[in-house]
Design a protein that fits this description.
alpha+beta; three-stranded antiparallel beta sheet
Length: 140
């Protein structure tokens, strides 16, 4: 009879950082572990985020910390969606204009680490935010 462990519980299957099967550091387990093809930790079965996705979320954190009062005022009294202000954020190799409503949504998301919410949030931003042009031409 096979016993299946619940997701999120560390089974202490530690490996070194230079393991030949390409180990990754799991935030949930707090050690290096092997991952399957889909990027799930073999130890706790939680998806390990890529480093680039974590740095993209750090950009959202920096903007949230710098403009916290403006975002909280917008949450208290949202204005017309056509008049929303936003920020230029680089996601991958593409710069996108991210309106304030996405940062308000990001501020209200509970603990993103180790959950699929971070992937869903970034995919939603990629789908709905407009791509900024590579070069801005001067208006004459």
């Amino acid at each position: 009879m096979q016993v299946i462990e619940s997701k999120g519980k560390c089974r202490s299957q530690k490996v070194g950082p230079r393991h030949p099967s390409k180990s990754k550091f799991c935030i949930n387990c707090a050690h290096y572990s092997l991952v399957d093809i889909n990027g799930f930790c073999d130890c706790c079965k939680i998806k390990i985020p890529n480093k680039k996705q974590l740095t993209e979320l750090k950009t959202f954190d920096k903007i949230l910390n710098a403009c916290y009062l403006s975002i909280q005022e917008w949450i208290a009294d949202p204005c017309n969606p056509d008049l929303d202000f936003g920020w230029s954020i680089r996601i991958g190799i593409i710069n996108r204009f991210v309106p304030v409503r996405f940062l308000a949504e990001y501020s209200e998301l509970p603990n993103l680490e180790g959950n699929n919410k971070e992937y869903l949030f970034l995919e939603n931003v990629k789908k709905e935010c407009s791509v900024l042009p590579r070069y801005m031409h001067a208006i004459k």
